[in-house]
Amino acid sequence: MIKLLCVGSMKKKEMKALQDDYLKRLSHYIKIELIETAEANSKLKNPDLIQKEEAIHILNKIKESDFVVLCDLKGTNIDSVTLSKKIEQWSNKDIVFIIGGSWGVSEKVKKRANYKWQLSLLTFPHLLARIMGLEQLYRSYKIINNQEYHK
Q: What 3 state SS string does the chain have?
C-alpha cells in the first residue's frame, strides 16, 4: 500500500481533477490512499512554529512500521527508473510519501524519514509537487509492470 501524506488540501478544481486522475490510474496497480493534514494556524508567522504544528499532524498519521519517503529539497535526486526500482525494494512495507507544506517540514519529520527524495532541483508550490509526485508514482508502476508509458 502507498499513502500520499500531504499538508493542506487541493482547492483548485483543475488540479484536483488531475490529482484524482492519477490516483485512479495508480489504483489499478496498488492500493493508494491520499491523506491530507491540516495546515498550520494562519496566524503563525514563524516558519519554525508552522513546521512544528504541521509535524504533529504528519507524525500522527505514520505508523512505526511504515517506510517513509520525504519529498525534500535536500534529498537524493534520482531518475524515474531508479525510483521504480526503489519502490520495488520498499514494497514489503506500507510506503508513505510525505509532501510538506509551503514552509517545508520540521527536523523531527526529516529524522523520521527513511529516504529523502528530491523531486527536482527547481522549486515548486507544494500542491504542484503533489501532482508531480503522483505522476512519478504512476510512471514507476508502468515501469515495474513493463508497460508502455515511460520513454
A: CEEEEEECCCCCHHHHHHHHHHHHHHCCCCCEEEEEECCCCCCCCCHHHHHHHHHHHHHCCCCCCCEEEEEEEEEEECCHHHHHHHHHHHCCCCEEEEECECCECCHHHHHHCCEEEECCCCCCCHHHHHHHHHHHHHHHHHHHCCCECEC
The DSSP output letter for 19 is: H
pLDDT above 90: residue 32: yes
Q: Nearest-5° angle of CA 12, CA 40, CA 114? A: 90
> What's the pLDDT tens digit per position in 86-109?
999 999 999 999 999 988 999 999
pLDDT digits 0-9 by tens, 46-89? 889 999 999 999 999 999 999 999 999 999 999 999 999 999 99
**Residue position matching grid coordinates 492500493:** 31
For residues 4 and 35, the answer to whether their CB atoms sit within 8 Å is: yes
Domains and CATH numbers, the chain: 2-144 (3.40.1280.10)
CA distance 45 to 139: 38
